[in-house]
Design a protein that fits this description.
Helix content: 40-55%
Largest sheet: 8 strands, mixed
CATH superfamily of the largest domain: NAD(P)-binding Rossmann-like Domain
Strand content: 15-25%
Number of helices: 11
CATH topology of the largest domain: Rossmann fold
Order of helices and strands: EHEHEEHEHEEHEHHHHHH
CATH class of the largest domain: Alpha Beta
Shape: elongated
Number of strands: 8
Oligomer: single chain
Radius of gyration: 21 Å
Length: 268
């Protein structure tokens, strides 16, 4: 039975926990200062405590997962490092916090994995990208994959410098999609549709298109071309969206770069 200790049961922590507690072979404990969040964690099957010092005497976790806000990671690791068994695995899902920064508080022993999940983890459809410390070995990556794959698709990168871009694309990405839905709805209403119908059309269209695009054998540009008749309605819309200077691509590039820059700042 693997002992997993989760530090922080806020939005992302709880999104992971509610799915993890259905997994066989794992026992989950939570450290969370907020009483309401502790109660919520207990309702899905975890043992919850207000502080690491409140854990049972002699408690040792095989895996320590830190899901606090970035500015609280250092204190969280310092307070809980004694609860991680020798050779244990430390996973952080806090944006921008580097492996080196975590190492200063975790000591030299633990294997550290820096992970970046996104909010679709709450429905088991997350995208989680990980980068491991130099002392990680295949069994450590396998343990990480076994835990995180329960909440979505997992990928590993070798170079930690890529994590700022990962954060900007998939970590923050759901917010871009949700805003696209908002804008799609507003455009539908402006075109004369009732608000409820406009939102239904936007949601189902986005869901269906995304499901088609998930096929690894399919190129999204091919799918786009299949929808686009010469001189038709789609082509008229795409002439706006694909404008080289003011279209969607340069706008997305600026948005992702802004998120990258903020991730770098958090890491500093």
């Amino acid at each position: 039975m693997k002992q997993v200790l989760l530090i922080g049961a806020g939005n992302m922590g709880f999104a992971m926990l509610r799915i993890w507690t259905r997994m066989a072979g794992h026992r989950f404990s939570v450290v969370e200062v907020n009483e309401g969040l502790r109660q919520r964690a207990e309702e899905v099957g975890a043992q919850a405590y207000a502080a690491a010092a409140d854990l049972p005497s002699g408690y040792e976790a095989d895996i320590l997962v830190v899901a606090t806000k970035p500015q609280a990671v250092a204190d969280a690791i310092a307070a809980s490092r004694g609860c991680l068994r020798a050779g244990g695995l430390l996973i952080s899902v806090a944006a921008g916090v580097t492996i080196g920064a975590m190492r200063r508080n975790a000591g030299e022993g633990p294997v550290i994995v820096r992970g970046m999940p996104n909010t679709p983890a709450a429905v088991g459809e997350g995208m989680i990208v990980c980068c491991a410390s130099a002392n990680a070995h295949t069994p450590d990556l396998e343990r990480t994959h076994a835990l995180l794959s329960a909440i979505g698709r997992v990928a590993f990168v070798e170079h930690e410098g890529m994590m700022d871009a990962v954060t900007a694309v998939s970590g923050s990405g759901p917010a871009y999609v949700f805003y696209l839905l908002e804008a799609f709805n507003v455009a539908g209403v402006a075109a004369g549709l009732p608000p409820d119908l406009a939102m239904t059309l936007a949601k189902q269209t986005l869901f269906g298109a995304a499901k088609m695009a998930l096929d690894p054998q399919v190129d999204p540009s091919v799918l786009r071309a299949q929808v686009t008749s010469p001189n038709g309605t789609t082509a008229a819309a795409l002439s706006v969206l694909m404008d080289a200077d003011h279209g969607l691509a340069p706008l997305m590039q600026r948005a992702v770069e802004a998120a990258c820059q903020r991730s770098r700042e958090l890491g500093e």
